[in-house]
């Protein structure tokens, strides 16, 4: 029980940190002045999702 509890606890910490620091994990330059909207192009198959211009 204790090992599962530790996995559960640290798993929540890990996923929370990944969400809060998603720009760091993605390798985005911290000195970037442009405002970045996360999640704008993440919804696959959703017709309301904006298309990224290449």
UniProtKB/TrEMBL annotation:
<protein>
    <submittedName>
        <fullName>Photosystem II CP47 chlorophyll apoprotein</fullName>
    </submittedName>
</protein>
<keyword id="KW-0150">Chloroplast</keyword>
<keyword id="KW-0732">Signal</keyword>
<dbReference type="InterPro" id="IPR036408">
    <property type="entry name" value="PSI_PsaA/B_sf"/>
</dbReference>
<keyword id="KW-0934">Plastid</keyword>
<dbReference type="Pfam" id="PF00421">
    <property type="entry name" value="PSII"/>
</dbReference>
<dbReference type="GO" id="GO:0016168">
    <property type="term" value="F:chlorophyll binding"/>
</dbReference>
<dbReference type="InterPro" id="IPR000932">
    <property type="entry name" value="PS_antenna-like"/>
</dbReference>
<dbReference type="GO" id="GO:0009521">
    <property type="term" value="C:photosystem"/>
</dbReference>
<dbReference type="GO" id="GO:0009767">
    <property type="term" value="P:photosynthetic electron transport chain"/>
</dbReference>
<feature type="signal peptide">
    <location>
        <begin position="1"/>
        <end position="19"/>
    </location>
</feature>
């Amino acid at each position: 029980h204790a090992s599962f509890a530790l996995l559960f606890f640290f798993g929540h910490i890990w996923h929370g940190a990944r969400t809060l620091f998603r720009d760091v994990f993605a390798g985005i330059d911290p000195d970037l002045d442009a405002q970045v909207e996360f999640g704008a192009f993440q919804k696959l198959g959703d017709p309301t999702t904006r298309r990224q211009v290449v």
